[in-house]
Amino acid sequence: MTQTSDAIEARTASQTTIVLDGTEVPFCDGETLYEISRRHRKEVPTLCYDDRLDAFGACRLCVVEVDGFRNPVASCTTKATPGMVVRSTSETLERHRKTLMELVVSENTGGSARNGNIDVDPLRGLKSQELSNLATRYEVDGTRFAGATSGKSRQDDGNPFILRDYDKCISCYRCVRVCAEREGDYAISVMNRGFHTQITTEFDSKLEDSACTFCGQCVQTCPTGALADRKALRDAETPGELKKTRTVCPYCGVGCSVDMLSKGDKIVGIHPAMDGPANQGALCIKGQYAFDFIQHPDRLQTPMIRASNGQLVPATWDEALDRAAAGFLAANRDHGRHSIYAIASGRAPHESAYSVQKFIRAGFASNHVDNCSRA
Q: For the chain, which terminus, N or C, has the lower number of CB atoms within 10 Å?
C-alpha cells in the first residue's frame, strides 16, 4: 500500500515543526526552544545567556511549559523535537519569573533599586542594562527577600580599564565563560559557593597580575554592570545624549566592527559590534580602549613645515602639500624611486592606508610600503 504525496508531506512537516504559543512553526535540527522563541519575537527573559557561549541554564528565567513535561524546562538548554507543544508565557510562568527576579535583585542590588528600576549607567557596558530592564518589567526592587548579600568589590584594583564592582554581581558566570570559551585566557574564575561566591582571578590577585589581556569581553557581556568600562565611566557626568556610530577599528587588517560612543562632539567609549562579520563581538585591548589619541590635546590640528632656521612652524594645507610634493620629486630625481619609502599609520582610516600604498606603487613604481600594524 503506497502513501499519497499529501500524507508524506504532512508527515515531513510534523517532523520539522513545533507548536509555539498555539502556532505551528518550523525549526532546524539542533535548535533550542529559546532560539526558536526569540526568532519568533517571543519575550522570553534570561540573564545567563549569551549567543556566543554554550547554553548554561543557570538563571532559569527562560523556562517554558512543554506538554508532557511535569515541570517548566529551561528553554536555552532544551532542544526542540518534532511535534512539541510549547508555551513561552503564561500566568504561572510569569509568577515564577517574577519570584526569580525578586531573589536575584535582592541578593546584591536591592539597595540601589529605585521604584523598580536599578540605576546602572549604560556606559558600564554593552549588556549592562539587562538586569535593570527586567527589574522594571517585573516591577521588583529587591526588598521582598532582602537579607544576606554576596560578592565583594575589588576597589583596590587600580587598573585603568575594568572596574570590578562585585556588589552588583549576580553570579551568572558569563564573564568567566566568555574569558574561557571565547578568549581562551581563563583569567577569570569563581571561588566558594552560596553567599560566599566570588568572581576572582588566580590567587585572588589584581587583573594586571593575572592572565587578563584587557580585551573587555567580560565587561561587554556582564548583564548588571558589575564589571564595567572604567574609561567610559569617566564621562558619566558629561552632559549630552549618548549616541552610537558604527565604524571599523583602524588598528590592524582584521577590520573589526565597533560602535563608537559619543556625547556631543566627544568620544567617550567603544562597544564591540556583536554582528560584526570579522569579529562577532570580539576586540583586542587596542580596539576596546585605545581611543584617547583621537581627541588628545597634543594632536596636531594644522600642518607644520620646517622653516629656514630649522624650526617647525604652522602652515596652510597648500603650503604643506607643495613642500611635500617638492621633496618627493627631488628624492626621486636625485636618488631614484627606491629612495622613497612609506609607512602608513595603524591609527589612520583604511582609506588612508589604501591611498598611501597607491601613491607609492602607482606614483613611483615601487613596493617600498609598509604599515605599523602588527596585531
A: N
Smallest CA-to-CA distance from 199 within 219, 228, 170, 223 is with 170
- Strands 198-200 and 257-263, bridge-based pairing: unpaired
* Neighbouring-strand partners of residue 20: 23, 86
111: confidence class by pLDDT, cuts 50, 70, 90: very low
| Residue pLDDT, tens place only, 218-260 | 999 999 999 999 999 999 999 999 999 999 998 877 889 999 9
* Higher-confidence position of 79 and 352: 79
| Long-range Cβ pairs for the range 155-161 (8 Å, 24+) | 156/206, 157/206, 157/207, 158/206, 159/206, 159/207, 159/208, 159/214, 159/230, 160/230, 160/231, 160/289, 161/214, 161/216, 161/229, 161/230, 161/231, 161/285, 161/288, 161/289
pLDDT for position 115: 40
Spatial distance between the Cα atoms of 238 and 235, rounded to a whole number of angstroms:
5
- Over residues 342-354, the mean pLDDT reads 82
Using CA atoms, how far apart are residues 335 and 360, in angstroms rounded to an integer? 15
**Strand-strand pairing, 342-344 and 369-371:** parallel
In tens, the pLDDT along 284-311 reads 999 999 999 889 998 888 999 999 999 9
Q: Pairing mode, if any, of strands 113-114 and 117-118?
A: antiparallel
Domains of the chain are: 5-89 (3.10.20.740), 115-230 (3.30.70.20), 235-299 (2.20.25.90), 304-371 (no CATH)
